[in-house]
Write a structure and sequence with these properties.
By secondary structure, the chain is of the alpha/beta class. The chain has one domain: Glycerol-3-phosphate (1)-acyltransferase (3-Layer(aba) Sandwich), CATH 3.40.1130.10. Helices cover about 30% and strands about 15% of the residues. The protein has a seven-stranded mixed β-sheet, with helices on both faces. Helix 3 links the parallel strand 3 and strand 4. The two termini are about 20 Å apart. The N terminus is likely disordered.
Length: about 230
């Protein structure tokens, strides 16, 4: 994949360029700390799109950035804005979001990014999983996908939860084929149904041991037929 975005960030987006150092830094970090094995990166389509992922560790961010096309914008919890992690986030374009709330300002910013032709990365669970398995997803990604009509790219990440606990563990990033949700103004139960579909697509990218909240869900097999 080329390392330059095909379109510019929206004019009103404050972080107009990612650091050119970010991708090589992430590749180096993953190579030093783990046996890094990305696959399916050819499935990233032309932007805009939403890359939807699970979230196990702080190392998910460099694992994703090491193999994603240059220019993807991430969502990050506002609590990290002034934390020890802030310098890492300063290297990329980030939308700060208040966790577990209807952060309309963040949703509007994310929608502007997608409408400007730029890809977005969303950890659908909204926070790191404490069990190292999939937790229940939140509705932000399904809201944005139905409002903008952009495709969703499921990404399964695993092994990152073992970094710094096990010497150079195997870490995996598996990228699935894009899929779409019906465009429109979905709300309530319909959004929840779409979120379940998104999470089952992510589950289809993960080993069964990581399925967690979605273990045994028949949608996993259905989505695997589409994205695997």
């Amino acid at each position: 994949m080329p390392d330059t975005p095909r379109k510019e960030f929206p004019a009103d987006w404050p972080a107009t360029q990612q650091s050119r150092l970010l991708k090589p830094l992430c590749r180096t970090l993953m190579a030093v700390t783990s046996n890094y094995k990305p696959e399916g990166t050819e499935n990233f389509p032309e932007p805009p799109y939403i890359a939807v992922t699970n979230h196990l560790s702080y190392f998910d961010v460099p694992a994703m950035m090491a193999c994603a096309p240059f220019g993807i914008v991430g969502l990050a919890a506002r609590k990290y804005q002034h934390s020890w992690l802030a310098p890492m986030f300063a290297l990329t374009a980030v939308i700060w979001v208040t966790q577990f709330s209807a952060d309309r300002e963040a949703l509007r910013a994310a929608q502007r990014v997608l409408e400007g032709g730029v890809p977005l990365g969303v950890a659908v669970e909204g926070t790191r999983s404490r069990s190292s398995k999939l937790a229940k997803g939140t509705d932000g990604a399904s809201f944005l996908a139905t409002r903008t009509g952009v495709p969703l790219v499921p990404v399964g990440i695993w092994g990152t939860e073992k970094i710094l606990k096990t010497p150079r563990p195997e870490t995996h990033v598996r990228v699935g084929k894009p899929f779409r949700l019906p465009e429109g103004r979905a709300r309530g139960d319909q959004l929840s149904e779409y979120t379940e579909r998104i999470m089952c697509a992510v589950a289809a990218m993960l080993p069964e041991a990581y399925h967690g909240h979605y273990a045994g869900n028949p949608l996993i097999e259905e989505m695997a037929q589409i994205v695997a």
